[in-house]
Structures are given as C-alpha cells and as structure tokens.
Design brief:
Elements (H helix, E strand, L loop, with lengths): L1 H13 L3 E4 L6 H18 L4 E4 L17 E2 L11 E5 L11 H6 L2 E6 L10 E4 L6 H12 L5 H14 L10 H11 L4 H7 L5 H12 L2 E3 L4 E6 L1 H7 L4 H8 L6 E9 L2 E8 L5 H6 L3 E2 L3 E6 L3 H12 L3
C-alpha cells in the first residue's frame, strides 16, 4: 500500500487543480469521504480541492461538516478541467452521471472504493470490497502515513461509516469496529453524529411511509417489491434506504426490491438480501454492488421492470 500512497502524495503535490466526486445521488459515504479527502489535502498539502456532485444530496446530510463546500456540477464553468480527479465510492462508471466528462478529461484519476468493479476508472486504485465503507480505506491511508487530521475529518469519516453500515447493522468484519473505536478516541461523538442525521422533510417521511404501506409480497412473503412513481420520487430526497430497511424488518422477508421511476422509461432498482447474494441479478440488469446490497438503472417502464424483477427472482 505504501507504494500507492507515495504515488498519491506525488500526484497531489504536483497537481495544480484537483476535483473529488462520488457516485450520482450522493449518500453519506460518498459525500463524507469526498469532503474528508478535500480537508485532508488542504491540511497536508496546502491545496484546495473542489468536491463536485451530480444528482440529489439527501436533506439528512445537510448537517455534515463542510457540506456547503460541495458544488453542483452545473455551477462549474463550461469547460472545467482538472489535473487530478479523485473518485470515491463510485461503484461503476455508469454511476458517475454528468461528472464523467470531467473525469475523462483529467490528466490522472485516483479512486477509493469499496465496491467490486471489473472495469476500473482510476489510474491509481485504492479498492477493497470487504470494507463496509469507502471511508475505511481513506482511514487506512491516514494510519500508514500519519497525515494530519482535524475534527472535521474525524467526524466525516465516522459519519461515512455510520451511514454505509446502517448504524453498524450491516457489519461483517471486526475491522469497522476497530476503526470506529479509533475515531471515537480522536473525538468522534457517535450519538451526536447519529442525531445530526435526523433532518428529513415531512413530505419525504410521508412518501416513505406510503411506499412501505403499498409494497407487494411474492414467493410466499420472501420477496417484497416497493415502487415509487416519478411524482413521489421527486419528494423522496434520497435513495430510499429507509424503505428498504423497514421492509427488511418484516419476518420471513428474504429479498427487498425498490423500484424508483427517475423519469419516464428510466427506473432505478435497489436490491437488498438478508443472506443470499443478489449482486448477479443487479449485474444482469447492467448494474452491480455488494453481495447482498446492489442496484441498477434500466431503461423501461415501471410496469415492465416490475415484471422483469419478479421473473428474475423465480426459483431463488
């Protein structure tokens, strides 16, 4: 890892312009990891990186440190170009959205990611699909080099781990607890940080409640499919993680699928499983992800995608 870190240091040190992005429609890990790297570069190299995003940022992330530093891509000058582009938690190229053009135009690309991806975008890759959050990979680099960090970085890395682990519900390996303990030792107040995420709009909670109440059950209750039409999707303010979490709590449910109508003939699909791997289903739809948490975007109607999902799960 040290050889990769030395290249990271060299590229950051020599870059005149640096941008950082996560996947489209940021979640806690993508946003907080990007902002943590931004502050890390400022503290240790004296350079200001630009955090750029595409899509929505959920309102429950409004209170994370340095949130206002993130820039929507349409606010950038027309032909913006960066010497160094850093990607965090992006998953696959298809998840880059409109920032893909900036990534491709960059002289060098570095990525930090915890998703499996057989078509890497980065020239230099810090990837580990056994980590619960991308923030852990950044923290590993900090441990090796002993970079200077401050409270903002500590809180951002902690929030990234909290959100992507589902408040530690999705943890499979002990390293995440060791990382959380280290961050607490450095000043992270986990109860305060968790409470800072309770910041949703009323309309969002009501839409989530509606979607849960109208979910359909198949395969003798083992598969549940929830759908969000375009009108409600605009009120969702995020990726629907609460819907997925609530439905997964029902006794007997093994698989949860959330279909989101981004726009006409474009359906976002989020799939969760208690234990049985479902990443191959997402990959068959042109997406990907983790063994038990994956997704895709399909160009078709909500009705047709619903039927497709039911067929794909037959026999599981």
């Amino acid at each position: 890892m040290m050889e990769k870190i030395q290249v990271f240091i060299e590229k950051v040190r020599n870059a005149k312009s640096i941008a950082i992005s996560g996947h489209k429609n940021l979640d806690g890990d993508a946003l907080c990891s990007a902002l943590a790297l931004m502050k890390l570069i400022e503290l240790n190299f004296g350079k200001k990186a630009t955090v750029i995003f595409d899509g929505n940022v959920p309102r429950d992330l409004d209170n994370v440190p340095l949130r206002k530093e993130a820039v929507f891509h349409k606010s950038l000058p027309e032909n913006s170009k960066y010497d160094l582009y850093i990607l965090v938690d992006y998953g696959t190229r298809k998840n880059l959205g409109e920032i893909e053009k900036y990534v491709d135009a960059a002289d060098f690309v570095i990525e930090f990611d915890h998703h499996f991806n057989d078509d890497l975008v980065g020239n230099l890759c810090f990837d580990d699909d056994e980590k619960v959050a991308t923030a852990q990979i950044i923290l590993d680099m900090i441990k090796v080099v002993n970079f200077n960090i401050d409270k903002d970085i500590v809180d951002l890395l902690t929030l990234a781990i909290i959100t992507d682990s589902g408040n530690f519900k999705f943890v499979r390996y002990s390293d995440v607890f060791k990382d959380a303990a280290l961050l607490v030792e450095k000043g992270a107040d986990i109860p305060h940080l968790v409470n800072s995420l309770n910041n949703k709009d009323k309309k969002t909670v009501l839409v989530e409640s509606k979607v849960v109440s109208e979910a359909e059950f198949f395969m003798k209750g083992r598969l549940v499919i929830a759908t969000i039409n375009h009108a409600d999707y605009k009120k969702l303010d995020g990726r629907g993680d609460i819907v997925l979490s609530l439905l997964a709590q029902i006794r007997g449910v093994q698989f949860v699928v959330l279909l989101k109508e981004h726009k006409e003939d474009q359906i976002g699909i989020s799939i969760r499983s208690r234990e049985i791997p479902i990443n191959e289903i997402a990959e068959s739809l042109g997406g990907g992800g983790h063994l038990c948490a994956a997704g895709a975007v399909v160009g078709d109607t909500l009705k047709n995608v619903r039927s497709l999902i039911i067929n794909l799960f037959k026999g599981m």
